Amino acid sequence: MTVEEALVIVDTVLYPKHLSDLQELVFRGVWERQTYEQIAISYSYDTDYIKQVGSQLWQELSRVLGEKVTKSNCHSVLRRKASPPQKLATLLDISEPQISKQWREPMNEKEEDRQQPLQISDFDFLEFPSGPVPIDSKFYIDRPPIEERTYTQIAKPGSLIRIKAPRQMGKTSLLHRIMAHARQAGLRTVVLSLQRADTSIFTSLDKFLRWLCANVSRQLNLEPRLDEYWDEDIGSKVSCTLYFQEFLLRTIDAPVVLALDEVNRIFEYADISSDFLPLLRSWYEEASELDVWQKLRLVVVHATEAYIPLDINQSPFNVGLPIKLPELSLEQIQDLAMRHRLDWIDKVGVQNLAPLLAMVGGHPYLVRLAFYHLGRQELTLEQLLQTSPTVAGIYSDHLRRLLANLQQHSKLAGALKRVVLSSDPVQLEAIAAYKLESMGLVKLEENQAIPSCELYRLYFREQLN
């Protein structure tokens, strides 16, 4: 069976739904025996994101076909399902919806059972909020004017965008949309997450830069030629710069967007970050002197929890377009609620949202996780609010991660303890206030700190006291 024949089957069983463009690309790649990594490289996507798209695709096919479908067995499953519908379509001229209806039923069911309408869960449209929000998801909320500003900036020769926010605020979701926009505009794209680099890569600057160049080459479908440009006598930074300038940028006939996600990981290795971050800045500045560097556009993404003091005159984070992701506004939260079909919020209005907003503020992940569980009717709003700051609540993983970070920094834990135990804003030492704000735990009003939301106040008052 060819991939085109397989896609006909998939389109039929999914009717009236259909594959998104990205799902089709993933399906084609898998059908041709490509790995997720190969598919990601071919289309300049992050591998983890391609895996997520593939997982959702197999879940949907499993649901409509009535049996488990996976990356490894999709060929055999679709071949088994192919024959009866094709004969029905050819011999009886049955319409596509009718084929789809019969096809969705397991093959061993009785004839009378086939007449029963397909039962589709009322909750199938919901997406559990884990990782980046898929490109085609209806649960991504734009935060104007951020998206349009980044789309405009990435089109500029030699541009640099730096996106920073605490974890789970939507940095990578925004990054995927910037890259998708760039691809639609005809730019070549490379996405590298430093979380995917082996620990051994960070043992030296030379090893890290070679890893960078090799991965960029692969994603641009170029055979790496590191040894032709690497010269220990001139150093790894100059070698890396020449590799980009003389090989990568001159070989590719279109502008290249290089996105570096989870850059905060390099902050753990001061010897590397102190050389690599100024190197990025130098590439950005070269665009004003050399035309070839105007072909390179940079997007640097990092979580602010991992911020370390850097020389402000050398860091790349004081150049280019800064993007600091804000919390969702009340209107955006109402929009997100309606997308989760929480009609009771719309009927009574803001007053129904007030207790939830007090608990979690406008944090995108916390709000969306609440709406997911409320949308599935797994618990009531009252139950959610009551259990939220406890170890048994829906936010337990999120809260444990924050607590683990604090336990490694006793001074920060002590500073936050003062804030959550006080009913009034607390004056903090400047560095402690800045770091707690970077973690998303406090909001600063002039020089005084208050908890970012009631969830943090209640949880950390219990855990730190």
Provide an overview of this structure.
Helix 13 (270-286) links the parallel strand 3 and strand 4. It contains 22 helices and 8 strands. It has 4 domains: 3-109, no CATH class; 146-324, P-loop containing nucleotide triphosphate hydrolases (Rossmann fold, 3-Layer(aba) Sandwich); 330-387; 397-464, Orthogonal Bundle (Arc Repressor Mutant, subunit A). The protein starts with a helix and ends with a helix. The protein is α/β, with parallel strands linked by helices and 465 residues long. The chain has a 5-stranded parallel β-sheet, sandwiched between helices. Strands 6-8-7 form a 3-stranded antiparallel β-sheet.
- Report how far apart the termini are: 65 Å
CATH topology heading of the largest domain: Rossmann fold
Radius of gyration: 25 Å
Helix content: 40-55%
Q: Give the DSSP E fraction (strand runs of 2 or more residues).
A: 5-15%
Q: What is the correct CATH architecture of the largest domain? A: 3-Layer(aba) Sandwich
Please report the number of helical segments: 22
Concise synopsis of the structure shown:
The protein has 22 helices and eight strands. A five-stranded parallel sheet has the order 2-3-4-1-5, with helices on both faces. Strands 6-8-7 form a three-stranded antiparallel sheet. Helix 8 packs across helix 9, helix 10 runs parallel beside helix 12 and helix 20 packs across helix 22.
